[in-house]
Amino acid sequence: MNIERTDRKGERIRGACVGAALFVALMAFVIATMAWAFYSDPQEAPPLPLLIVLFGIPVGCIVGTLKVLLERIEEIGKGEEDAYRNY
């Protein structure tokens, strides 16, 4: 068993989680800012279909980020963290 590789596995998982958390926080901030803007001045809010699209884009980014994070954690767990070097 390679202890250095085992120790690095935790670092790689932590790095992937931190990156995903920062991106999710950024998208949550964008959603909160849009919600605040539309709530503070409802007369100037766009129509409902456009609101759904505007909120759906960051929500889709969050869902995609979490999906990719789970796949990355699986890859790290299987020992494929350096698979890109084979190409």
Global geometry? elongated
- Measured distance between first and last alpha carbons: 25 Å
Question: Based on DSSP secondary structure assignment, what is the total number of beta strands?
Answer: 0
| Helical stretch tally | 2
From N to C, what is the helix and strand string? HH
Average pLDDT, all residues: 87
> Major β-sheet, in short?
none
Rg, alpha carbons: 19 Å
Summarize this structure as a short list of keywords or feature phrases.
2 helices, mainly alpha, 87 residues
Describe the structure.
79% of the residues lie in helices and 0% in strands. The chain is mainly alpha-helical and 87 residues long. Helix 1 (3-40) packs antiparallel against helix 2. The two termini are 25 Å apart.
Task: Please outline what is shown here.
The chain is built from two helices and no strands. Helix content is 79%, strand content 0%.
Helices and strands in order:
Elements: H1 3-40, H2 48-78
Helix pairs in contact: 1-2
